[in-house]
From TrEMBL:
Protein name, UniProt field: 2,3-bisphosphoglycerate-dependent phosphoglycerate mutase
UniProt xrefs under SMART domains: PGAM
Isomerase keyword on record: yes
GO molecular function, one term: phosphoglycerate mutase activity
InterPro entries membership: His_Pase_superF_clade-1, His_PPase_superfam
EC annotation from Swiss-Prot or TrEMBL: 5.4.2.11
Lineage top rank: taxon: Bacteria
Pfam families: His_Phos_1 (PF00300)
Amino-acid positions noted as binding substrate in the UniProt annotation, renumbered to this chain: 59
Keywords carried by this UniProt record: Isomerase
């Protein structure tokens, strides 16, 4: 059985309120455009998740809402503090609890960049993949009967995009 992970870093957030708690930062205009573009790209490519697991931060919630607007019949998302600035191993642990065959996971750097690199069986030649800029999205397939069986170093990269390649 093939399981599919859509791994997305939150879109660009605003830094205009120095008193705002990091967890509560909202998207800026560039982030709004990027999340919308990524959602449209996912829809065009037919990469539609059936389960969404996201950090509970405001910027990840807003990123998902904008992506979901572009998808036909998007699933409800579950938001967890466990993914807020989570390291790669915690991200894997959360993913291993997933139940749908296609899962979108939303998180933060530096953990998501580390996770994106560690999850693949083969290295990627795209430098942006290792930086995992805001709203970067990878589509990774695994041959496993359940997410609980997925381990690092077992994924196959199907696709990868950053918003700049979509919006110019």
């Amino acid at each position: 059985m093939t399981l599919r992970l859509i791994l997305t870093r939150h879109a660009k957030s605003a830094w205009d309120d120095p008193l705002a708690d990091d967890h509560d930062r909202k998207l800026n205009d560039r982030g709004t455009r990027a999340a919308t573009a990524i959602g449209a790209w996912l829809a065009r490519q037919g990469y539609v998740p059936r389960q969404v697991i996201s950090s509970s931060a405001t910027r990840t919630r807003e990123t998902w809402a904008l992506i979901a607007e572009q998808l036909e019949a998007p699933p409800e998302a579950s938001f967890t503090r466990r993914l807020y600035h989570a390291p790669a191993l915690r991200m894997l642990s959360v993913l291993q609890e997933a139940t749908a065959p296609c899962v979108l996971m939303l998180g933060h750097n530096p953990g998501i960049a580390d996770f994106a690199e560690q999850i693949l069986a083969e290295p990627v030649k795209d430098g942006a993949y290792f930086q995992y800029p805001t709203c970067a999205t990878a589509v990774v397939d695994f041959t496993a009967s359940s997410w609980a069986q997925v381990q690092t170093g077992t994924g196959e990269l199907v696709d990868f995009i950053v918003p700049r390649r979509l919006t110019g």
